[in-house]
Amino acid sequence: MSRSIDLAVIPGDGIGQEVVAQGLKVLNAVLPADVKLETKEYDLGARRWHRTGETLPDAELDALKTHDAILLGAIGDPSVPSGVLERGLLLKLRFAFDHFINLRPSKLFPNTATPLAGRPDIDFVVVREGTEGPYTGNGGSLRTGTPAEVATEVSVNTAYGVERVVRDAFARAQARPRKKLTLVHKNNVLVFAGHLWKNIFDTVAKEYPDVTTDYLHVDAATIFFVTQPERFDVIVTDNLFGDILTDLAAAVTGGIGLAASGNINPTGAFPSMFEPVHGSAPDIAGQGKADPTATVLSVALLLRHLGYEAEAARIEDAVQADLAARDGSARTTDEIGDALAVRVSG
Amino acid sequence: MSRSIDLAVIPGDGIGQEVVAQGLKVLNAVLPADVKLETKEYDLGARRWHRTGETLPDAELDALKTHDAILLGAIGDPSVPSGVLERGLLLKLRFAFDHFINLRPSKLFPNTATPLAGRPDIDFVVVREGTEGPYTGNGGSLRTGTPAEVATEVSVNTAYGVERVVRDAFARAQARPRKKLTLVHKNNVLVFAGHLWKNIFDTVAKEYPDVTTDYLHVDAATIFFVTQPERFDVIVTDNLFGDILTDLAAAVTGGIGLAASGNINPTGAFPSMFEPVHGSAPDIAGQGKADPTATVLSVALLLRHLGYEAEAARIEDAVQADLAARDGSARTTDEIGDALAVRVSG
Ligand SMILES: CC(C)[C@H](C(=O)O)[C@@H](O)C(=O)O
Ligand SMILES: CC(C)[C@H](C(=O)O)[C@@H](O)C(=O)O
């Protein structure tokens, strides 16, 4: 294991700045003294686009490649046309660095508000495919802006892309106590993509006889997310279904303020990128109201990915303890970051 | 208004048979004596497919066209390969009869269990596009079954198709007390389809200055469905997002046993089709356990579509009263149907 971490930091827009500062604070506090942490900040996002018109120039894409990992806050602002930063920066990074595993754990921590009555036990992880599906940018518009316009979006699914994410999900399921993997798709309507996913899922399943498997249509899955979330252990699904399900998962486990994610390239060919699931929340930006916990938990995923398992677990324990100790009084972004930094260095 | 109803009935599979019987029972009970009801049953679904290999022969499609409306129970059985009956029967009907309005009201009735703590006020309707999006069957698979397979699904969106559903949704929003319409899409990623939807939505909005408008990405919408469902009045969205959101809506308003839907062609060129949102539930079929309320509420939508507003309202009031009077003891499918039939004829 390398005893140095060379981290690229993209604070981005809105609350991205504030939460990333806390993520770095906790990262510094948790790392043993002999681990050298180097960070380099990249000025990317809405301000940069307004100033220069650039989203992610090649030089910066190349520079980002040289780091061990990337920590990203949030991208997006209402002043930028929808899609410009998403496609030109966030998705560009996920695709350029082949982040085919979009890892999104969901856990209902103690003392955390959930909109669900009866507080079910929730502890599952969504393995969302990150480089295919309707996210590939394959689509177009004909006779744009006229009454005869036709706009298409193509979901692209390959055996290559599906197999690698399905294999990763089986391995993760096997490593967890319950060893259960649910494939979510919509193979009764999206029959071509659906059959590809299901066939590969069933084939790989034979190599994991100890993993219990299940299949749900995406519409039915949303029902179980609110009526019976305890039935899920590991979920594997496509890029768009994963996007939808993980926001819902965040909502039922106490809100998007706690949802962490990793855009992972398990081969190590490119740096993986860790970010909270939430957006830039311009309405509360700059007011110290943002909960940095999702970013701090993303730092835990980052550490685990780089081989710092003990430090990752220490962060997760600190979050758990911090949430359990909450008395309901409002804390600023900074105060939450401080409290977590104290706990991890304890 | 015609004083006769010529109804096609497709009970379909599993609990479809049982719930449709109750729907017809209540329909018979609610209709004034001078309205002549004629029904013709069509044997379509899994059994038919097993027997003859047919899903929906042309002769039957032509015959179905001649009716005033269609009442459908549920289609699908695990013994039939996924997609065969969905594409070959259910979606074939929606597309052949140009059911471009898929209407799905969601209401949290009194005395009804919801998985949501705090019982928010829920009363919204989803206007789901029914003839485009990723449901068009445009897609394919290359090198099927090999490690080099590529499978695509194309979401097709036209100005023609989007404008008519958006107009319908604005008119519905304007007719409701709160006059609010939310467009749900994912225009930061699906930029071509998303811009088409958003542009048409914004253009039509100018004709409805008294309707408050809102836009949400589909992932964010799922969050609000569980944290703040009271914010919704009318929602307009594409075929796939509508599919996902209406199952979630059903779940938060007391379950799929209460969710009604209409596949409507407002031009009257073809018969509209009414069906519960739930599926054929083979696990509980034939046991008298299915709740026929969703089908009975679908009959109310059917009556409203045919101009029998008073009778539609009487059914909805009966359901409301029946749910309010529940004491928690289990009732059979038949008992619920009987209770509703008594209430509407009262
Ligand atoms: C901002 C957007 C492009 C992104 C996505 O759709 O993947 C976000 O919703 C997420 O889940 O990370
Ligand atoms: C059965 C299936 C084809 C259908 C759909 O996806 O539309 C169902 O889920 C629905 O919502 O009516």
Automatic annotation (TrEMBL), chains A, B:
Gene3D superfamilies for this protein: Isopropylmalate Dehydrogenase
Keyword match Magnesium: yes
Binding site for substrate: R94, R104, R128, D219
Binding site for NAD(+): G279, S280, A281, P282, D283, I284, A285, G286, Q287, G288, K289, A290, D291
Top-rank taxon, per record: Bacteria
InterPro entries: ICDH/IPMDH, IsoCit/isopropylmalate_DH_CS, IsoPropMal-DH-like_dom, LeuB_actb
Reactions this protein catalyses: (2R,3S)-3-isopropylmalate + NAD(+) = 4-methyl-2-oxopentanoate + CO2 + NADH
Gene Ontology terms for molecular function: 3-isopropylmalate dehydrogenase activity
Name of this chain's protein: 3-isopropylmalate dehydrogenase
Organism: Streptomyces noboritoensis
Protein encoded by which gene: leuB
